[in-house]
Design a protein that fits this description.
Blueprint (H helix, E strand, L loop, with lengths): L3 E5 L4 H12 L6 E5 L3 H9 L10 E4 L2 E4 H11 L15 H19 L19
Parallel strand pairs: 1-2
Antiparallel strand pairs: 1-3, 3-4
C-alpha cells in the first residue's frame, strides 16, 4: 500500500495541533506530513489537481486526494483508540458533514491564531515530514 500523506496549512495553529494529535495516535507511522506551503505540498496540489483556494487538511492515499471531512474521517480510521469510531460518520453525505468542517476551517485563524512559520518537528519524528 502506498504512503499516506497529510497535507496541512503550515501557518495555522489549529492545523499544527491537529498534526500533533495525529502523530500521538499513530504509533505505527501510517501517516507522513507536508505543509501546503512546502514544495512537496505545492507539487501534490499540481499532481492531484487541487485548487489553490482549497486550504483544507488533505489526505493523499492510494494515489487519490481526499479533502475536508472525508480526509479527517479517513485519518481517524487509522488512529489508535476510540477515534476509529468517528469513521462511522462517513455514511453522512459529504455536503452535510462539510457544513461543520467548513465552519471550523473558516474561523480557525480567528479562534486559534496563525504562526509566522511552520513548526520544526522534533528529531524522533522528523523523517515523517516531507519537505
Amino acid at each position: 500500500m502506498g504512503q499516506r500523506i497529510v497535507l496541512f496549512d503550515g501557518e495555522c495553529n489549529f492545523c499544527d495541533t491537529s498534526v500533533q494529535f495525529i502523530i500521538k495516535r499513530d504509533p505505527n507511522g501510517f501517516f507522513h506530513f507536508a505543509s501546503l506551503q512546502s514544495d512537496v505540498g505545492q507539487s501534490m496540489r499540481k499532481k492531484y489537481n487541487i485548487p489553490e483556494n482549497i486550504d483544507s487538511m488533505l489526505l493523499i492515499e492510494n494515489e487519490k486526494a481526499y479533502m475536508r471531512s472525508t480526509a479527517a474521517l479517513k485519518i481517524c480510521k487509522k488512529l489508535t483508540g476510540a477515534w476509529k469510531l468517528f469513521y462511522l460518520f462517513i455514511i453522512i453525505p459529504p455536503p452535510i458533514r462539510n457544513i461543520v468542517y467548513n465552519y471550523v476551517a473558516k474561523n480557525r485563524y480567528k479562534w486559534f491564531g496563525k504562526m509566522d512559520q511552520c513548526m520544526i518537528p522534533p528529531p524522533e519524528i522528523r523523517s515523517r515530514f516531507l519537505s
